[in-house]
């Protein structure tokens, strides 16, 4: 079963990802490999460890229907399926249970976080290679085989190590739920991560600040609200998610410096507070986008689409036909712009502007501008703040708990080093 066709493919709900019915038992003559071909969607259900123990190594369709016929509760599950302490679990159904757990656990403001998607991508080769293997027999060599599948997929070393650690964490969850012996988890933890320069796996390029000339080049080719978001990020060091979710109600305008407190942010689950200070320049950029409806998002792709349609109607040279005048828009189109940008749509809006700028540059004979993405603007702000005010100020503005993290974002100022050595001689 394919979880996602690619790392950047369209995201689907966890219910559709887990929509399978296992009609055969792995190891039987009619079975090829785990998982069986998807045929019919299961209703959304929590696959508990008790239920998996009771249904032996692989749940059958009859067991699924019987367990779904009653409300899910520990008492009902135990009475329907007595616990078998000597049963073994195949890795495949145990992975399904873990995906269900992750979908309910990794949530923020009622929505699944990106960790759910990352877990699905990490578990997929595990289920494809060792879905029928009893989980208690999974050892370090099996983990290395899964890691090699990540490498063969073209992933960089850091991403390979991250996904491998998720697989180890999956078996740690299995130990917690009494599905596998604790020795399995201990053995997998003994597998060390790939070291830089010693593994033969490609390295990822570090994120660098983007030159201001390349940022300014896209201004004529993006919408005004997208350009405002770019400017705000470059000035304040906000994350893309934070600038996308700005609302009037979240901005304290009582002082000379405005304070923006995002509704949600990256470190919210660590009980960290995030306050973003907006100076006079940022206030002038933001002022035209403030709303009387306080809870409305400032930057709306739906309004951007309406503006684009109005511009196209105004620029139209031929009159509308009778059929076009009487045509009505669909009440519920398959795809419609949302109330606010998310990080993905914001990224694509910037990418669209870069492509348009490069087409124009090619037409007039100028060199193209390199590709850049919104998260680099945070690095721009960090480098500028560190150069002008020092590392502590940059850390406070970016919202980092440790200056070590800020050093990843802020580039060292080579000019200051050269000036110091010139004085030293």
If you had to describe this structure to a student in words, what would you say it looks like?
The protein is mainly alpha-helical and 425 residues long. The chain starts with 13 loop residues before the first helix and ends with a helix. A hairpin with a 2-residue loop joins β1 (107-108) and β2. It folds into 2 domains: 14-189, no CATH class; 205-317 and 337-425, hpI Integrase, Chain A. α5 (91-105) packs antiparallel against α6 and α11 runs antiparallel to α13 (280-286). It has helices at 14-17, 49-54, 61-68, 74-80, 91-105, 114-130, 140-152, 157-176, 182-189, 212-216, 224-236, 240-244, 280-286, 301-314, 322-325, 343-364, 375-389, 391-398, 403-409, 414-424, and strands at residues 107-108, 111-112, 251-252, 258-260, 276-278. The strands form 2 sheets. Strands 3-4-5 form a 3-stranded antiparallel beta sheet. It has a two-stranded antiparallel sheet with strand order 1-2. The chain contains 20 helices and 5 strands.
